[in-house]
Amino acid sequence: MTYLDTHTVVWLYSGDERALSPSARRQIDSDDLFVSPAVLLELAYLREIKRIRYSADQMASALSREIGLKVCELSFAMVVGSAIGISWIRDTFDRLIVGHAAANDATLITKDKLIRKHYSKALW
Question: What CATH fold (topology level) applies to the domain 2-123?
Answer without folding.
Answer: Rossmann fold (3.40.50)
